[in-house]
Design a protein that fits this description.
Elongation Factor Tu (Ef-tu), domain 3; 6-stranded mixed sheet; 26 strands; globular
Length: 445
């Protein structure tokens, strides 16, 4: 694979922005180190362009006729290498230099085969980039089922984030995915994306954006989405004790602290990866909002189903922890791609040694980590990257405009990148919040 051509632009008129992006793509496709004839396009738009999604996709297809397959979605922001466009009209496009027999675009009308077996369909899904509508019923179950349609079970991507239409792009073959009829490649609702075969090398990591503010508890009583007891004590009392507040007298100061607090959940039966070792979350933890307090039963209501046996820790967004953890995953990717030539970033290495970060990311099975004692692998080159970050992480959360993307560029170098700010992030078969999912495509031995 060669470098992936990429382009990004902002303009009040979508056609002007799209024309600027097409000019960038054509210029890069003429360079010897960039792909000259890619067939798979990734397009992310902000919701300012959502109402014109069909016209925008048609324009890209007509200006880039060699790109026969498209996937993407809408976010409240989009990202590119070293830049983010947050809450403004913009788009980010990347053309992936992946052989046509190594990927397949899918959607609700053209789903992946139930079993990832090339003998029945001619294509065996290994991993998948997934875009999903957060309003889809039983979304967590659908993601778990989708993961079974890949050989590794590894998904990466995110949920649409839009104040208007929650559009998704899915075009395959000669302009249409078989069976989509008059949909013209623009969908609203459900899941879509692109699956990759085992021949596409990639490395993926998850970075958390919240830090626990109290001990890790076990849920001992729950009903639906309400936590009733933690370690045998009433959940509301545990929350108030953790925050060192009371609802007696004037409850407003306590309620303000509660509104700034979230809950990190780990499934029943799972051993929490990070917190019991270092006091920080691992990637097995899913952060959920506190949506209410039950004064009668002394319970805490969360934006997710809970059950006895789960682990829970109250947490808050933490800028310093988020920055350090993003640096860590970038350093891990650098080390894995070039263990002999590249040292981890000093700030990430020191932070890990000091116990300030511990969340471990997932590797795509297409590019496994070398076993202990194995011979060092040759340097592998990054051809492109996809970064899906939570809409609550962008902008000032990292210290200023585009600060989050500048961290990624500082660590990975000037590599092609496209992404969006999502309403939720997908990694493995889980749905996350306040996280970032960074996936790089690599070429080399």
């Amino acid at each position: 694979m060669k470098l992936f051509p990429s382009g990004h632009a902002t303009h009040p008129q979508w056609r002007m922005a799209a024309a600027l992006v097409v000019a960038q793509l054509r210029a890069q496709m003429a360079l010897p180190d960039h792909a000259s004839a890619p067939t798979l396009g990734l397009v992310y738009i902000t919701d300012h362009y959502a109402s014109e999604a069909s016209a925008l996709l048609e324009y890209l297809g007509s200006e880039l006729p060699g790109v026969t397959d498209w996937t993407g979605t809408v976010g409240v922001g989009v990202s590119a290498n070293n830049a983010e466009y947050f809450d403004e009209p913009a788009l980010s496009v990347m053309l992936l230099d992946v052989p046509a027999d190594q990927y397949r675009v899918f959607s609700g009308v053209a789903p992946l085969p139930t079993h990832p077996d090339a003998t029945t369909s001619g294509f065996a899904a290994h991993t998948a980039l997934v875009h999903a509508d957060g309003r889809t019923p039983e979304l967590s179950e659908l993601l778990a089922e989708m993961s079974t349609r890949t050989a590794t079970g590894y998904l990466f991507g995110g949920l649409t984030a839009s104040r208007t239409a929650s559009v998704q792009f899915a075009v395959g073959g000669n302009g249409n995915v078989a069976g989509q009829g008059a949909a013209s490649g623009v969908f609203d609702g459900g899941l879509s994306g692109v699956a990759f075969a085992a021949g596409v090398g990639m490395v993926s990591r998850v970075t958390q954006g919240c830090q626990p503010v109290g001990a890790l508890h076990t849920i001992t009583a729950a009903q639906d989405n309400v936590v009733l007891e933690l370690d045998g004590e009433q959940a509301l009392d545990v929350l108030l004790d953790t925050l060192e507040v009371t609802l007696e007298g004037d409850p407003q100061p306590a309620l303000r602290k509660v509104r700034a607090t979230l809950a990190g959940l780990v499934n029943a039966g799972a051993q929490p990866q990070g917190q019991r070792r270092t006091g920080h979350f691992g990637t097995d933890t899913r952060v959920r909002h506190i949506v209410g307090l039950d004064g009668t039963r002394r319970g805490v209501a969360l934006a997710d189903h809970v059950e006895a046996g789960m682990h829970l820790a109250f947490c808050q967004r933490n800028v310093a922890a988020a920055r350090a953890d993003l640096m860590r995953i970038c350093a891990e990717i650098r080390e894995e791609l070039s263990p002999e030539e590249l040292e981890p970033l000093p700030i990430a290495r020191n932070a890990t040694a000091g116990g300030s970060i511990s969340a471990s990311g997932y590797n795509s099975a297409a590019m496994p980590s070398p076993a202990a004692g194995a011979a060092p692998q040759a340097q592998r080159r990054i051809c492109g990257a996809i970064y899906v970050s939570c809409s609550g992480r962008g902008g000032p959360h990292f210290g200023g405009p585009s600060a989050e993307l500048q961290i990624v560029r500082h660590a990975l170098g000037d590599v092609p990148l496209a992404g969006f700010f999502a309403g939720g992030e997908i990694a493995h078969h889980h749905l996350y919040g306040y996280t970032g999912v960074l996936t790089v495509f690599v070429a080399g031995d």
